[in-house]
Amino acid sequence: xxxxxxxxxxxxxxxxxxxxxxxxxxxxxxxxxxxxxxxxxxxxxxxxxxxxxxxxxxxxxxxxxxxxxxxxxxxxxxxxxxxxxxxxxxxxxxxxxxxxxxxxxxxxxxxxxxxxxxxxxxxxxxxxxxxxxxxxxxxxxxxxxxxxxxxxxxxxxxxxxxxxxxxxxxxxxxxxxxxxxxxxxxxxxxxxxxxxxxxxxxxxxxxxxxxxxxxxxxxxxxxxxxxxxxxxxxxxxxxxxxxxxxxxxxxxxxxxxxxxxxxxxxxxxxxxxxx
Length: 275
Fold this sequence. Notes:
0% strand
């Protein structure tokens, strides 16, 4: 397993990461209060999903995601995220009440902690090359754009556990990652394949079962207690078109002028064909 043998210490990686996150905070701060009437989220490049979702996800009160129904007359989607992401928002909203800025900072603290966890795991795996993450300009822009650093942290921790041959823990972290955002579940396939290739199929089976078990433990209570709300994430993503900032959307708009080519089924077929 790769070890941290570089001359740069973890403390320096953390210090440089803190600088990147501080720069990112300076970028996002003008939008943190939710006063977007002047279009600052675009003119100052400070847009973040966190600010509007306090209201869109109807969390300013005491509504429990999935378990309490959404107000269907309110604008926007509700309960549109996987379980651990929705409940991260719920916990932050309990801390913030109706304050948009406090909601932003409560979530930002969680995301900053996730960034440090990622850096620590990367340092354990590749040493000073963790600086590619800690100093990434994209990290300054996107660290608090949404909640993606949480599944990234879980997936990175799972990778470290896999390299350390802690297969059950790797599976658990991947299952929790999939309960936050779907993509960590995809890592189960190469990890299990790696164990099979190494003639250790039992380890691969343990990893797969651990991932499935962790996902089920988190999801089943909400699937049973609020099936309509829990299914909203799957319903929404099975039908939603390409995001406006995706390559698919840009290509359709630029080259065809017809956004009909951004429908979900067509994109899925095209994506599979390009692999």
